[in-house]
Design brief:
This protein is mostly helical. It has ten helices and no strands.
Length: 142
């Protein structure tokens, strides 16, 4: 039931649970669930900006294989969604998403990702034409 439904419905379920039992639903689920299913349920209950914030922070702390997730967040969210995620990131971690990305990524990938996070697509195109096309393809698929 918690997994199904729209984010507003899931939020209402969390609020109703708290009013009824005096405990946060996520903490109650944490006691009952384990491993990947727990992670799935917890991520699903977060609103999109907070979910992106959590996943982006995790990705910045991992190896370069997580860069794909950072690029996915940066490229698939609308300007408003990305703005909400960036604000949520700053509120939760007391630093900007761009700071963490800059600190935990390197090379051309860092430059392109920071430009995409800022929605500077014109500069992304200019930068990508500036460097070897093969290297850009490797950045996007790695």
């Amino acid at each position: 039931m918690l997994i199904l439904g729209h984010i507003d419905q899931r939020k209402l379920i969390r609020e109703t649970y708290f009013e009824t039992y005096g405990e946060d639903l996520l903490k109650a689920l944490d006691k009952e669930l384990s491993n990947d299913f727990e992670r799935l349920v917890l991520l699903w209950t977060l609103d999109p900006a907070k979910r992106d914030t959590f996943l982006a922070n995790e990705a910045t702390k991992r190896s370069t294989s997580s860069n794909q997730l950072l690029m996915e967040i940066a490229c698939t969210r609308s300007s408003d969604q990305l703005l909400f995620a960036r604000k949520a990131y700053h509120a939760r971690y007391k630093k900007s998403l761009e700071e963490d990305v800059a600190h935990h990524t390197t090379g051309e990938f860092r430059k392109v990702l920071l430009l995409v996070l800022d929605h500077n697509y014109e500069y992304v195109v200019k930068y990508c034409t500036y460097i070897n096309v093969k290297r850009v393809v490797l950045i996007w698929i790695s």
